[in-house]
Structure formats: structure tokens, C-alpha cells
Amino acid sequence: MQMFEGLSFIQVAVALAGGYLLGSIPFGVITTRLGGAPDLRSIGSGNIGATNVLRTGRKDLAAITLLGDGGKGAVAVLIAWLATQDNTLQAQSVMTALAGGAAFLGHLFPVWLGFKGGKGVATFFGTLLAAAWPVGMLAGATWLLMAFVFRFSSLASLTAAALAPVYVFVVGRPTPIAYLGLFMAILIYVRHTQNIRRLLRGEEPRIGQSKRAEAGAES
């Protein structure tokens, strides 16, 4: 395929496998275990993201989880970018998209946890910021605006995810980055099926409404 021109099979395989394994690191589970908090999968929604870590009452561990989940997507992209410095811009964008997408997939379906991972919001933003920082900034601004106006974390995340591929073309980034944004957006919608149903029924709790609710758009 023309999109993969200039890339070897080994490069593509390493980007996919390396990105996936990096994304599979369950920072939420690791930080809560090391921090002496309860088993993350036995409380709240059972999710491994920062939102559920916050339900342990440990804001410090939640912050570490948020940075870790976002950072692993960014690191996967940056490694791919550095490894393809001598390639064409097209090949480089393909590699960063593959590595970032694999890391995102790893967070959602980590091999270490029986393929039961988070919802991907933090990793989505970290990956976007590294792959095309203007796109990541626009998506972040969209999340903040939607959260401020409507007070639904899930709706803010869904809107930011949906617009991310559009923002790629707005700022003139390579097409593979748009594919990356679309890939992550589709999976975010799949992982937020219950949130979408609650939004449609008017049952989704607003930001800060209820600490007991298990509905937020978790990372």
C-alpha cells in the first residue's frame, strides 16, 4: 500500500507491538497497589482509570494515574517519531499513528488484566497531543467548553473525540493522524455505550453531582 511506502514490515510490527505493550501498562492498578489503596477493580465501577482511582479518596494516586495513562500514549508516539526521523513525513505520520493507536488499544484491552481496561479518555488526549499538539489542544478546549456548559464529563469526552478527526484537517496535519483520531473516537464511543444510554434517558450525573455514581467518562 502506498501509505506504508518506505516502511518495512519489521518497523510496522514493532510500532504495533511496542505501542500495545506500552499502552497495556495499568497505571491505575499499579499506583493504587503501591499506594496501599483498595483493589481498584473491586470498588466503584471497577474501571482502571483515574476517575475510579479518585473514588479511593486518594487524589494523589488519581493524578499519577491520569499522567501515566496520558503519558504512555504520548511516549509511544514520540518513540515512533524519533525512530523515523530519516523517513518521509508521510511514513513518519503513519508510524506515529500506528504506535499511538496500538497504545490506545492496549489501554482499553490490556493483556495483563484479561483485556479489561479503561475507557481511554486520558490516553486519547495524551496520544493526540504527541501526534499533533494543535489537534490535542483543540480537543482539550472542546472538552473544557462542553464540560463547563453542560456539566457532563462523558458528553464532553464524546464531543471532543468526535471532533478530533475534523480538527486534523482544520490545522492541516497528515491524513494518517485523522485515521488515528477516528480510530480512537470509535472505540471511545463503544466504551461509553452505557454513558450514552444514560445521557439519552436523562440519567447521567453531572460533574460533581454524585460521588457514588459510576457514570463518568473514565480514563
Précis, in short:
This protein has 219 residues and is mostly helical.
**Proportion of residues in extended strands:** under 5%
Overall SS class: mainly alpha
The separation of the N and C termini measures 34 Å
**pLDDT < 50 runs, ≥5 residues:** 211-217
Number of helices: 10
- Rg: 17 Å
Q: Major beta sheet, specifics?
A: none
Give the helix level as a range of percent. 55-70%
Q: N-to-C SSE series? A: HHHHHHHHHH
C-alpha geometry: globular
Number of strands: 0
Give the rounded overall mean pLDDT: 92
Account of the protein in words:
It is built from ten helices and no strands. It has 219 residues and is an all-alpha fold. The two termini are 34 Å apart. 50% of the residues are buried. Residues 211-217 have low confidence and may be disordered.
What keyword list fits this structure?
219 residues, globular, disordered C terminus
Show the helix and strand layout:
Elements: H1 9-23, H2 27-34, H3 50-54, H4 59-83, H5 89-108, H6 121-131, H7 133-150, H8 153-170, H9 175-191, H10 193-201
Helix pairs in contact: 1-4, 1-5, 2-4, 4-5, 4-6, 5-6, 5-9, 6-7, 6-9, 7-8, 8-9
